[in-house]
Known about the structure:
The protein is an alpha+beta fold.
Amino acid sequence: MRLSKEQQQFTLDIARLVLFAESQCLYLTYGHAWRSPEEQKRLHDAGKSQVLESKHQSRLAVDFNFFKEDGSLTYNGKMLKYWVISGKALTQRTDGVVIGIRMI
Length: 104
């Protein structure tokens, strides 16, 4: 599949995820959506990423912050289940707050 088609599909998947989150009374803000090679190297060197080449660089990954209605950050297992069932990969930071999703 061409990169542009993968990006289009990923964008639709993100839309579905955002709408599902809202149906669960969760609201999202972006963490990282695109990373330059320099930013990816900085994150890798700081131990915040395990790879030097990230799907963020080809716009096939995004990190979200999930918020409850009261404005507090949260991690919600329903989001994990939704994304895994939909056939996508999902990771979370060790503090359980930011969820990264990507095409696989």
